[in-house]
Predict the structure.
Amino acid sequence: MCFNNIKTANEKLYDLIIDAKSSSSKKRYSDEKLTFSKLTNWRFNELPIQVKERYELGNAYITQDELYFLVLWKLNLGSFKPIAHHIKKNMPEDVIKITNRAFNALLAFFMESKQIKEYVIEDIKLYGELVGGAIEILKELAGVGTATASLVLNCLQGINENLSPPFITEESIMYLFSNENLLKKIDTNFYIKEMLPVYFGLIKDNDLNLNFSTIERGVTSIYHYKLHQSIFSFASPFSEEDWFKFSPSESVKSYQKEFEDQSIPTGFKMRMNAEAMAARATTQNNSAPESNSSWIEQALTTNNSTIGISKSTTSQPSTKSDMKTQIKVLSGVNALTELSVTTAQRVFSVQQKLESLEDKIEDCVAENQKLFVKVDQLEAIVRVQNQKILDILGGLEDMVAESLGSDSKRRKLGI
């Protein structure tokens, strides 16, 4: 059974593969302090706890440094691409604000959601659209695409282990779909319509205690092990000969069919829905207005990262005057942020009205089409009647011509 192999791979292969990759690499991270194994431990165990602690203090987010090291971890887990430097192009406060907005969109949903095993297809579709909106928010950051955004959102597992969105890897796509061309099509729609149905289907089929991260580590391990089995020193934990093949269950196929027929909202609409949900979470978390204009400043000036990263990427004020200036700037930025959230809610309201108007227009168009059909039918009837009249007139002309011919003959004969 595919899930048993995924579970086995998570439990017996993942750590061994990470250690093997770490041992074979001379790379070190965070001022040469961390091996890849330790960076992996930070990604799964320490950073999610840090995000949870920030959430309990009022605001969940990650810093620019943490985002940078998440991307480094992601790139070294799979096929390395030199793109991590793009993260440095973002302003540190932008990373905090944008990740906070994306997290809040899902945290509000977490607070209102039922248990994942109780989900029906409508719940899954709503979940998918909100995750899609959070992904679109995170894409505002330079160097962040769909896969990286899903990795950032997975950091919420410290707050809700079962509902934190799955991180999609190239390895998971290759194992689940065996189609290399799909690696070029990784976008928000692909994540919602192709990946989520498989993950939810696997959870539905099994009563075991599992979550999206368990599945992600399992499927990634299976593909890694299949690809590099010859160089690994540890034996295969699988008993089946076709352990590396994924066969979708009936539940997975059912969800895939449901999502295949689903009309996915535009990225803009998903983002507006997520922004509205994020605004709701912000209102619930921050009862005092002044807190909205101070927490980002505190996050920038406090090095509370679990990885012990230096603060070199975050500029610090050198004088009291600089500090006052930065506080004023941050206050202005936060005021604009609050205004943008309000504007986003208004835009969403206008968009709903426009959609209602579009529905009415579609109804009018449908009625017009019915009228056009009736007009066409009337035109056909008129054409038939006209032809009958023309036929009668033609007959009359023949009769008149025949009568005139008879008169002419009689005159010639003197009759």
Confidence is low (pLDDT under 50) at residues 310-324, 326-331.
